[in-house]
Q: What sequence folds into this?
């Protein structure tokens, strides 16, 4: 079992999402994935986070619906994947 | 094709056929009937609910040998139509509210240039009645204004509009609304007409003849010994033409149940259909109510209205605005019958003039209120 | 004679397509038709409603209505207006997969159809409105089922042609889900197809 | 059953962490708006608002809105807003700035608003050297009316009233508005940004700041164009927006600074630069990688 | 300075004094009285006879701490004025015929934005009556319209215009013509007023407060939980404001010799002075004629007119156009007294609306013709 | 007593001679007009008409007039004329040309008409590549209204509403319209002429012909600007017109071809050329004359 | 009480300047004044006319008139309107250097002044209108000659100040060319200057 | 007494002239002179020709009032001045 360095994380305002997927393609470490069948209150699929966020803000900066809050950890963590 | 067009994104090549009985939206009916009437030039700038007509024209007109310009603004659209009209081509343009306001300078002066032009006024609500019937531009010009109640009548009135504009060399306005543009119904597009090119039309060929043609809102006087234009003469001539046109165009109106009516409702365009439904409901219950629906808003069918209202106790004007046609109703009746305004702008957040107050029950209640009064008051 | 239909749902349920298919079918059978669709902007989940009038003569009814012979409810949200429209003697068809409000207007025939479930079975939840259209035609004989099926091809824009078969299956499944002629649209002497053309 | 790999994201982290980006950007009162999924305009709005905030201009800014989809934000900001008619924002901004020279005045317009309906407004304002910043969100369509051709639509682009694609013969060529503005003596800063990816977003953010700085310095007129995705008006699936944009609009309306400190670089020059850089990159790779 | 300005090229720095009794052209009187009323922003585009006012403003306003923009077009002029008005500065713009037609979109919507603005309508003739009084733009808005008869009255009405536009947050139109602009006479410019800045005015400072100000023709609703504008509410509120304004503004009219008059002439602006001279001549000869001169064209002084005309046999409407105010006269009297139109556009080749038919003798003859008929007919 | 040196000029010469230039130019119906003494516009009109005649376009030409002093010629030509509103001629010309692609369509506009009131009309028409020729008579003022500032008035120029001279701070900078048009892809020929002396007149005549030739070839939009004297609007004696012009307007709106066969030369480049040529001339003179 | 003056000539004769000087002088003396000048475009030789009303109370007369107490004719061309204006009891002053049509309205005092000749003697033919103004004031005492002279400086735009002395000489020469008070403008109890202010 | 070569001549429509003097400055051999006091029917001074016209059309091309007709002699003449 390998590990991944986690430097940051995001809070996702699931119900604000309109399911456009821009964040998915924008995330450099590719740690955002769309839900499969689950939809939010407005009927859209939305992103979920896998381990490995760098806190780079690429998702929050491109999201048209301001769904993300991005945090940088004071100290990076190693997390098993 | 059908109501699907009302739903949003429908991009498709039109089938070649342009006539015959079909199910289509009012906007498509407007486009197809313009082409059938011989319109060969159209220019416009998107604005709901005019946009829908523009889309159909952009798709259909080039295929019929015409030109449709996606103009960069309404002012440029009407300018392009002006140029096309001067070549003798049947031309049309149009817009919605704001866009028509921008065109007012051109719409005023193209009238003085004595050019035919059909203008689609696809309004949001009916707040542009004054603008259309008085001419929102400067000066003394007038336009014939036709107000269809639905797509089928729109097809007929578009034909009439091109006839009148050609005959009188004066712009003719066809007034519609969001309902007209977006409601699908069965219509019959008439067979295509091929209009002839008038003698005054420009094609360059009279150059060098010593009598080259001139199309100008300042008059078509050419300088010989004198310099300058003869504006006084030209304006006088235009005023005379306007007078002749006003006298020559038959005012149209449709009446329902007016013969013994105590309350006569007056309404035009789509709202008249709501009013008619209300009148029918009331009639079914025995109330003596009737409807006059002006079809030509200018010239206003004053005589028909006065005749219909001669025995009434009150005339109730319904418009989807704060009260504009009510002036024409009063001017028609000159105090002979009391006139009450029972309309009001009905708006939802779309701003398209399709709000919740425009509803048969609501209209009915407003007429009923007068019915009581009319009976007691007279 | 005029027969009104108000069809109400939320964006993504296919209300506008289904109402177009019904209108196209009626037109093909020689009926007079009028259709006005309204929808609340671009957002998924917004209100969407279609007002259709079928007639044996030129239609004079206004484009939107507050009283209708028939109502199809795809979703309870934004459905207040549609529910208020139905009048005694009429019919209300309810998508019981979704709708969670009771319909109990007196003198009205209520027909339950689990349309979204049926549509999912057939292949796509967005076909729920077509399931209802099939059921509606079966229950009312407003037009023939053949005309309805043919109308799908005529209504779909070319780039959506691949969905045709799926949509036709949805119609058929809807028709099979209800009894025939529960509330006939036309008096029996007025034939449901052909002759009026 | 929840996927075990998913990290919880429903609340701020328990571990010590610093908030580096918040949901609703500074100054946008309410996050919710009714623009389409995948629209680029909210992203551009965010950048403009953040630049104002970073330069501490919030209490002296007046934003003049044109009419387009972005108008959804005109009653949604925590800076003062004046709503103008379609195409008219630059003149309105002029009136504001002349009467309130101490404020920072910007317009938010679209390509339809600025380059179609109101082309002369922005050019006259630039020629006059009005100390305002005009911002143009360029998606190459009238988004709000449903995706029609504008004066910036690129050749071949399919729109609702040019359904076989914009044909140069019939419809003419797109206007590269930044190049025109750059040539006017009253314009001091002219730039074209984009929001198709995080790098572009960061570059565009700098452009906004430079434009506002030029305005505060009283140097003259400044202009920022931002290419924004419009999947609805382009009739494509939302995730394809960024790629479609770089391959169509972005190939013609090339990102870069067109005028800085009186020095003009034309879009062709930006294009040639890009080609040269690309070639150098390829050469370097062919030679075995880039060594700084 | 004096009539010299009417002659052509006069370029000179104005003397600093801005008040006191002086001999000046109407255009200078308009400019100076605007500045005295507190106007601090003006924008315009040249067009005779509006140009003359623009020239004076360009010269005088900056010296008074204001800004005068030589806008590149009328549409840009009204846009600039809109922006200035939103900052709470008293602003004015204007034009002539064509130019005002171009402004119609903005003039319609700035009314819905509830901004004060004074609009100078320096017309050629009086053919723009409908446009000014009905609003040539789209929708249901109305503007107060003031029509001075000469420079001295213009000074008063300019003051009133700024008062009313500030009070009602609704544009006010001051209508003049070539005669007004070019006729010199003695006028008294009132002492300068320093208007206060209203609470809704934008200055940037409410940013970041959580309640930043918004000035919009779509309403000033700020989004909280809901998205979008609430157009229905906003339009309803505007309609109510318009109603209040129409009720709140006192209609003004001047009457001459109406008490026992058989023929009552109605005329406004400069032509009313020709009509008055004709009425005086006729009175001097014993004819029972009178004059009603509407000063507010909107709201129209219907009650005053109806009262004045109550004993008359005929009401004769003189306008320098093909007949527009005559509608308002008919609407005021509603058939109680017969209404005749005795006007007509008087034009020479300048196009400025100063043609030869606008002449005391000619007006007199037209009144006399009715006088005979009035006496015999009643 | 008549001056003995004066040669009679009241009738054609008795000696065999060839008429090389007639009073009223071809296609101008009546020579008399009410434009001011010393006005440059009639001269430019003459050039446009002569170019049409020389290219044998008389029976297929349609001239669209704007509104300015030149409008005096709109009912005075022996070619077909369509009168447009102030600023709107390019759109009107577009409508004409689209319906009559076989005609040669030109506009006659002024700086006020084209660069102030109707700026976007000409730019949009050029971007669309309409096969029309727009002609702009540039005198840097609204002549007809009495000499007011336009969007081409140069810095320092005194006008009736900029009485201390155009001040860049307050009124902004003039627009060099040819440079903007040249940058639009639809424009194929762009030139700036002048009528301040016979040499300039001859050069300008060639520009008209090239523009019409480009139009006939269907290549796209063509544009000819002509600097014209306006002694009335400049408030100077008529004989000073040509010199005043070369020293004010002509120093900024520099004569030359701005776009030919897709090659753009900016006004600055024309200016630098002139400076270089001048220097070469001076150097040559300093070296003792020019030897071909 | 109102006194009208119509002054008619052709471009280049100084009609607008002279009428302005008269108006300015009257204003300075406390009279009410109204002045409207019209002129046929930019061309030299075009019609030019000024209509002036002097009054002891606020003026109500319209800006142009078809009947006037006094008329000054500088040139015969375009003078038909002016000649038709004069009414019995009034005065017509004729520039006999140029005018070649007879004026013979009954009951009207006709005063001949070779104004263009006088002006040429004084220094410039364009000063003919000022010569007439001087003569007019002398003949009518409408205002004082001092006020008239002072008005020249007030009326001339700064860049024309150099012509002041010439113009003043033209006024004086005109005044000397006719008899005093031939047709007094005001009844003798109404003083010609000062008191009305 | 010297001579001058005359290659052309002009016809001057005196009454069309508005006296602007543009032709005077434009004439390369400087053979046009304005009248002193004589004016035309419209009150303007106007140009007159001295010997030495070259038929170059400079006057006719710059005259705003189309006052000139220009002729070129088939054979140049020498004329005494
Ligand atoms: C004068 C006028 N014409 C037309 C419209 C209709 N209209 C509203 S938004 C819009 C398009 C806006 O396009 P753009 O500025 O590019 O903004 P986008 O919607 O693409 O964001 C149009 C044409 C209008 N509001 N006013
Ligand atoms: C919409 C509109 N605004 C203003 C005018 C008044 N106007 C007539 S001519 C003119 C100026 C024309 O200037 P330009 O085009 O430069 O021609 P010039 O007179 O200098 O030859 C103006 C502003 C008008 N006719 N129409
Ligand atoms: S902050 Fe960066 S790494 Fe983390 S989820 Fe967002 S885009 Fe991916
Ligand atoms: S970018 Fe935003 S709206 Fe789009 S899918 Fe990601 S979170 Fe949802
Ligand atoms: S239409 Fe285009 S610009 Fe408008 S909101 Fe949708 S994606 Fe954005
Ligand atoms: S004002 Fe200028 S442009 Fe107009 S005619 Fe006179 S000189 Fe020519
Ligand atoms: S033709 Fe040439 S030489 Fe002869 S008068 Fe004219 S300008 Fe002079
Ligand atoms: S250029 Fe023409 S108008 Fe001018 S002075 Fe010479 S002849 Fe006369
Ligand atoms: Mg856009
Ligand atoms: Mg000019």
A:
């Amino acid at each position: 079992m390998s590990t991944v360095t986690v430097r940051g994380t995001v809070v996702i305002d699931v119900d604000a999402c309109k399911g456009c997927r821009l964040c998915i393609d924008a995330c450099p470490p590719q740690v955002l994935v769309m839900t499969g069948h689950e939809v939010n209150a407005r009927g859209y699929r939305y992103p979920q986070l896998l381990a490995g966020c760098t806190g780079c803000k690429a998702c929050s900066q491109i999201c048209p619906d301001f769904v993300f809050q991005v945090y940088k950890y004071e100290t990076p963590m190693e997390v098993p994947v | 094709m059908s109501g699907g067009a009302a739903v949003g994104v429908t991009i498709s090549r039109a089938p070649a056929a342009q006539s015959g009985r079909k199910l289509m939206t009012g906007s498509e009916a407007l486009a197809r009937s313009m082409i059938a009437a011989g319109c060969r030039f159209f220019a416009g700038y998107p604005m709901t609910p005019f946009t829908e007509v523009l889309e159909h024209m952009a798709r259909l007109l080039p295929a019929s040998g015409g030109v449709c310009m996606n103009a960069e603004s309404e002012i440029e659209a009407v300018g392009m139509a002006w140029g096309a009209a001067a070549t003798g081509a049947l031309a049309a343009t149009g817009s919605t509210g704001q866009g028509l306001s921008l065109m007012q300078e051109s719409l005023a002066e193209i009238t003085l240039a004595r050019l035919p032009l059909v203008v689609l006024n696809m309004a949001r609500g009916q707040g542009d009645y004054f603008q259309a019937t008085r001419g929102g531009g400067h000066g003394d010009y007038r336009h014939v204004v036709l107000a269809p109640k639905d797509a089928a009548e729109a097809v007929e009135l578009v034909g009439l509009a091109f006839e009148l504009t050609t005959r009188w060399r004066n712009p003719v306005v066809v007034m519609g609304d969001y309902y007209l543009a977006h409601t699908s119904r069965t219509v019959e597009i008439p067979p295509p007409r091929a209009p002839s090119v008038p003698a005054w039309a420009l094609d360059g060929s009279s150059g060098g003849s010593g009598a080259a043609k001139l199309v100008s809102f300042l008059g078509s006087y050419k300088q010989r010994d004198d310099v300058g234009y003869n504006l006084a003469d030209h304006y006088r001539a235009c005023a005379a033409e306007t007078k002749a046109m006003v006298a020559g165009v038959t005012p149209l109106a449709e009446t329902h149940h007016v013969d013994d009516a105590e309350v006569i409702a007056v309404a035009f365009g789509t709202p008249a259909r709501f009013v008619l439904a209300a009148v029918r409901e009331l009639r079914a219950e025995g109330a003596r109510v009737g409807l006059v629906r002006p079809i030509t808003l200018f010239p206003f069918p004053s005589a028909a209205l006065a005749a219909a209202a001669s025995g009434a106790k009150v005339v109730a004007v319904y418009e989807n605005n704060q009260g504009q046609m009510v002036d024409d109703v009063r001017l028609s009746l000159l105090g002979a019958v009391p006139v009450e305004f029972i309309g009001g702008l009905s708006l939802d957040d779309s701003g398209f003039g399709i709000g919740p107050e425009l509803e048969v029950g609501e209209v009915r209640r407003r007429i009923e209120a007068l019915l009581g009064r009319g009976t007691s008051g007279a | 004679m005029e027969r009104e239909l108000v069809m109400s749902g939320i964006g993504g349920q296919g209300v506008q397509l289904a109402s177009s298919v019904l209108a196209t079918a009626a037109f093909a059978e020689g009926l007079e038709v009028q259709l006005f669709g309204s929808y609340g902007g671009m957002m998924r989940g917004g209100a969407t409603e279609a007002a259709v009038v079928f007639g044996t003569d030129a239609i004079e009814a206004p484009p939107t209505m507050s009283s209708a012979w028939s109502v199809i409810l795809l979703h309870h949200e934004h459905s207040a207006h549609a529910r208020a429209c139905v009048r005694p003697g009429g019919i209300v068809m309810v998508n019981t997969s979704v709708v969670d409000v009771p319909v109990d207007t007196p003198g009205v025939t209520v027909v339950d159809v689990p349309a979204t479930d049926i549509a999912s079975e057939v292949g796509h939840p967005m076909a729920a409105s077509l399931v209802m259209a099939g059921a509606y035609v079966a229950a009312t004989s407003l037009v023939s089922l053949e005309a309805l099926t043919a109308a799908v091809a005529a209504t779909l824009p070319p780039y959506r042609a691949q969905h045709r078969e799926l949509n036709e299956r949805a119609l058929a499944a809807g028709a099979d889900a209800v009894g025939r002629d529960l509330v006939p649209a036309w008096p029996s002497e007025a034939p449901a197809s052909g002759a009026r053309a | 059953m929840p996927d075990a790999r998913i990290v919880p994201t429903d609340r701020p982290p328990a571990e010590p962490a610093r908030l580096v980006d918040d949901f609703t950007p500074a100054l946008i009162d309410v996050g919710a708006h009714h623009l389409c999924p995948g629209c680029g305009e909210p992203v551009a709005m965010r950048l403009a608002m953040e630049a104002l905030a970073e330069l501490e201009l919030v209490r002296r800014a007046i934003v003049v809105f044109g009419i387009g989809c972005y108008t959804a934000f005109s009653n949604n900001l925590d800076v003062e807003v004046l709503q103008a008619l379609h195409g008219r924002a630059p003149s309105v901004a002029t009136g504001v700035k002349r009467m309130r020279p101490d404020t920072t005045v910007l317009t938010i317009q679209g390509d339809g608003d600025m380059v179609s309906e109101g082309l002369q407004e922005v050019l006259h304002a630039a020629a006059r050297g009005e100390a305002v910043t005009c911002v143009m969100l360029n998606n190459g369509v009238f988004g709000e009316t449903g995706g029609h051709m504008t004066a910036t639509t690129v050749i071949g682009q399919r729109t609702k009233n040019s359904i076989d694609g914009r044909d140069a013969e019939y419809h003419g060529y797109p206007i590269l508005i930044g190049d025109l503005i750059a040539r006017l003596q009253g314009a001091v800063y002219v730039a074209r940004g984009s929001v198709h990816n995080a790098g572009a977003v960061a570059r565009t953010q700098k452009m906004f700041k430079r434009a506002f700085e030029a305005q505060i310095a009283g140097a003259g007129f400044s202009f920022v164009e931002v290419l924004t995705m419009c999947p609805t008006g382009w009739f494509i699936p939302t995730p394809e927006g960024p790629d479609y944009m770089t391959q169509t609009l972005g190939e013609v309306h090339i990102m870069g600074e067109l005028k800085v400190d009186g020095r003009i670089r034309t879009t062709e020059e930006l294009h040639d630069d890009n080609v040269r850089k690309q070639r150098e990159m390829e050469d370097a790779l062919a030679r075995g990688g880039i060594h700084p």
The first strand of chain B starts at residue 20 and ends at 25.
